[in-house]
Amino acid sequence: MEEGKGARDAFVHFLNTPLDQLLVHGVEVEEGGEEEPRRRVLQLFRTALEQVPAYRRFIEDQGVADPSAASSSWDVFIKACPLINKSNYLHKYPLHQRCLNGDC
Predict the structure, then answer these.
(1) Which DSSP string do the residues of the chain spell out, in sequence order?
(2) Is residue 32 within 8 Å of 41, Cβ to Cβ?
(3) Tell me: the pLDDT tens digits for 91-102?
(4) Which pTM was predicted?
(5) Domain limits, the chain
């Protein structure tokens, strides 16, 4: 297998798949049921805060006063969390800091 092909294929899949499908992959959600994907996003947010050094710093730098409160409910999360883009995250923090536990 060509080096990096698996990662490239996964990235292309991520880019071409609607977010709602990515969030419910492998999870049984009743039609119209939104709680499971939202719960998974909140859990991912908590994990990123705990295990991704750049994300934790990004949240602090963006002025999110109480990240644990932001992960308490979907409505609070949507209002409190800033969007990531190239200039405020990808270009600002080195790659190793954007990986789980700062280790790529």
Answers:
(1) --TTHHHHHHHHHHHHS-HHHHHHTT----TT--HHHHHHHHHHHHHHHHH-HHHHHHHHHTT-S-HHHHTT-HHHHHHHPPPP-IIIIITTS-GGGGSGGG--
(2) no
(3) 999 999 999 998
(4) 0.65
(5) 35-102
